C-alpha cells in the first residue's frame, strides 16, 4: 500500500475478515469531526469499499442526521422499499423491519430501481447482545468467484423482480411509493420501467427487469449488483416460505426473483450465490456510537440474526442513475 494512501494517513486498521476500521478520537460535537474528516473518509471508502468508524459516540437520531448530512450533503428519499421503516428528520431511516432471528442476505440497496444510492450510511445507537452485524462483501470479488456461465446468463438476460403489494406483509404500495393515489403510482411505474397490474382485492402486482452486472460509474469495474438472492423465495427460512406459499400461493409471494426471461431461479443457484457471499464477507460486531460508510455499488451489505434490542439508523446519498453504470439489459421507461 502506498504510504500516502488515505488509509495510511488516517491510520485505518486493516484486518482479514473485517471491514476497514478507523478509530475516531472525537471530542465534542460528532458532526464537527465528520465535517473535518469528510474528504478523507470518502477517500477510504473509494479505496476499500467501506469503512467502520469507531469512537464517535453517536447518541440519538438528531446527531446521526447531522453527521450524515456533513458527510454526504442531501440525503435521498427512499422509494420502492421492500419493508417498512421508521422515518426520522434529515432523511434518516430506521433499519428495515425484518425478523431478528432471520438474516438479511447480502444485497445492494435499491439495485432494482433506476436510481439508487451510491453511498450508504449506517449508525448504531444500540448494539444487540449477540449477532446483528452489518456484513460487507466486495462485489467485483463476488463476481469473479461465480461460475462464468451463470454470470454470462445474467449479463444476457438480467434478473426480474416480482412483487405483490398488500397490507399484510412487507411494505404496502402506499409505503413503497409514498402515496395512496393509484394514478401517481401508475405514473411512477411507467416512468421507472415497472410493469404493473391492480388486483381485485386492491393489491398491486409489479414486474421489473434489471441488469445483474453493472460497471462502477467512477472506476469502471464490473460489479455483481442486484438483489437476486436476497429477494428470492429460496433465501427465506423454509418454514416461512412454506407458510407464505400456503397463504398467498406460489405466484403471489410478497417478492420473488427470476432470470430476466422469466425462468425460475432454482434453490441450487440461490444457495451458490449465498455461499459465495458468505466466503467473501467481512464483519465486525456493532458497538453503540459506531458509524459505517459503504459504497453501495462496489460493496454489498447484509444484516445477521441477532438477540436483544438493536437500533441501527440508515441514510442513503449520492444518487446514481442505472444508465450511468453500463447496464447489460436495456430498460425502456414510459
From TrEMBL:
Keywords: Antibiotic biosynthesis, Dioxygenase, Iron, Oxidoreductase. Transmembrane segments: none annotated. Its cofactor is Fe(2+). One of its GO terms (molecular function) is dioxygenase activity. It comes from the Bacteria. Residues 22-315 form the TauD/TfdA-like domain. The keyword Oxidoreductase applies. This is TauD/TfdA family dioxygenase.
Amino acid at each position: 500500500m502506498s504510504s500516502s494512501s488515505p488509509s495510511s494517513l488516517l491510520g485505518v486498521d486493516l484486518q482479514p475478515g473485517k471491514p476497514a476500521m478507523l478509530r475516531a478520537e472525537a471530542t465534542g460535537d460528532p458532526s464537527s469531526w465528520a465535517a473535518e474528516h469528510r474528504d478523507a473518509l470518502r477517500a477510504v471508502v473509494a479505496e476499500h469499499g467501506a469503512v467502520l468508524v469507531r469512537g464517535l459516540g453517536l447518541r440519538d437520531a438528531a446527531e446521526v442526521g447531522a453527521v450524515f448530512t456533513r458527510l454526504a450533503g442531501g440525503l435521498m428519499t427512499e422509494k420502492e422499499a421492500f419493508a417498512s421503516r421508521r422515518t426520522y428528520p434529515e432523511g434518516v431511516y430506521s433499519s428495515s423491519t425484518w425478523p431478528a432471528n432471520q438474516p438479511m442476505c447480502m444485497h445492494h440497496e435499491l439495485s432494482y430501481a433506476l436510481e439508487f444510492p451510491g453511498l450508504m450510511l449506517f449508525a448504531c445507537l444500540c448494539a444487540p447482545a449477540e449477532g446483528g452485524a452489518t456484513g460487507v462483501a466486495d462485489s467485483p470479488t463476488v463476481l469473479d468467484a461465480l461460475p462464468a456461465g451463470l454470470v454470462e446468463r445474467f449479463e444476457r438476460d438480467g434478473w426480474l423482480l416480482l412483487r405483490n403489494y398488500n397490507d399484510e406483509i412487507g411494505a404496502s404500495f402506499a409505503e413503497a411509493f409514498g402515496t395512496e393515489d393509484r394514478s401517481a403510482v401508475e405514473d411512477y411505474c411507467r416512468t421507472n420501467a415497472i410493469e404493473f397490474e391492480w388486483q381485485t382485492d386492491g393489491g398491486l402486482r409489479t414486474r421489473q427487469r434489471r441488469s445483474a452486472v453493472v460497471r462502477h460509474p467512477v472506476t469502471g469495474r464490473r460489479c455483481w449488483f442486484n438483489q437476486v438472492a436476497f429477494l428470492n423465495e429460496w433465501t427465506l427460512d423454509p418454514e416461512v416460505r412454506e407458510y407464505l406459499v400456503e397463504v398467498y400461493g406460489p405466484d403471489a409471494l410478497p417478492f420473488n426473483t427470476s432470470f430476466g426471461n422469466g425462468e425460475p431461479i432454482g434453490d441450487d443457484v440461490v444457495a451458490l450465490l449465498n455461499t459465495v457471499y458468505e466466503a467473501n464477507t467481512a464483519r465486525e460486531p456493532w458497538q453503540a456510537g459506531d458509524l459505517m460508510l459503504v459504497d453501495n455499488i462496489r460493496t454489498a451489505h447484509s444484516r445477521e440474526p441477532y438477540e436483544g434490542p438493536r437500533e441501527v439508523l440508515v441514510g442513503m446519498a449520492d444518487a446514481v442513475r442505472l444508465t450511468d453504470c453500463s447496464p447489460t439489459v436495456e430498460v425502456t421507461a414510459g
